[in-house]
Amino acid sequence: MSDEIRHAATVLIVRDGAPGLEVYLLRRTKGMPFAGGMTAYPGGGVDERDADTEIGWAGPSPAEWATAFGCDERLARELVCAAVRETFEEAGVLLAGPAEGAVVPDVSGDDWEEQRQALLSRDLSLTELLAGRGLVLRSDLLRPFAHWITPPMESRRYDTKFFVAALPAGQEARDVSGEADEAAWLAPAAALAEHHAGDRPMLPPTSHTLSQLGRFADVAAALAGSPPDPLEPIMPGFEETPEGRFAVLPNGDRVPLVVPKKN
Fold this sequence. Notes:
Layout: E1 5-17, E2 20-28, E3 39-40, E4 43-45, E5 57-58, H1 62-69, H2 73-91, E6 96-97, H3 110-120, H4 126-132, E7 136-138, E8 142-149, E9 157-166, E10 180-186, H5 188-196, H6 204-213, H7 219-224, E11 237-241, E12 244-248, E13 254-256
Parallel strand pairs: 1-9, 5-7
Antiparallel strand pairs: 1-2, 1-4, 2-3, 2-10, 6-7, 8-9, 11-12, 12-13
Keywords: Hydrolase, Magnesium, Manganese, Metal-binding
GO molecular function: hydrolase activity, acting on acid anhydrides, in phosphorus-containing anhydrides; metal ion binding
Domain Nudix hydrolase: 4-208
């Protein structure tokens, strides 16, 4: 059990594909200390430099995000900055542009990769990266989506805000995360079918948000379908039944915990 809770941000990057709405998913390497072998979205813990007030910013203010999250402005700023930083670090997608209404079209060159690596090593901050290129963070490209809190019985606990964002035109999500051994664009229903078959293990927040995302036909609907302010936090309990083990949500819904297939 752990009483320490770390704030984190996770981003559902979506695009319109041939089968309809698709989401970018990573499979974490089995050796990871948290959720090893599980399919998840790009994301991670808040870094102290995510609170930098000097960062160039376009779109809804930290105060507006604080209303959406039900938190103070400092934490709201940290969460939005962490979402943008982690999306670039883990998927090579940068939610930024030279001005409000514009998005940088391509961030795949060697110079970008060098700076992505510097972000990972913490030799460079997101503020420094954007300022050096004359860019601003585009908070309007993100939408609040869900809020999950790891229950007390877990050894590692996270208070995680889930965002949804469209893949910017001209950019490509890339398998650049050293924490993953697979990256794929999948329709939510297809990913959930693999999960229920035991082929794609994932934690309850991932499977539940995939089921929520699957209600939307396309990117425009997903971005327009954000929940009301503030997000309602979900901290699941657990239940053992003859049918299996389930995460029990505050509204009574049960999310099955599928045991991964053995090799």
